[in-house]
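>> received
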Amino acid sequence: MARQLVTPADGRQRSVTMKKANPKFILRNYLAQNAICAAEQGDFSEFNTLAMLLAAPFDEHPDHQQYAEEPPERGQKLEISCSS
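>> returned
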């Protein structure tokens, strides 16, 4: 079986295809919890930011890169249950 070479153009196309199928911004438990805590204090800015990002999760939002990063240590172990 012949081996196929991957060219830089193939890599760029793969990246474009992946970005169309995989959102950059996703709702993580710790982000939701941050928004809930702030809203309970009357500050809905975090909620509004999340709503904006999640309305266009495939787009680049350069001023909000921190929302696309790996969760911090405290956010990796946060458990949320739905009891409704």
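>> The first helix runs from residue 8 to 21.
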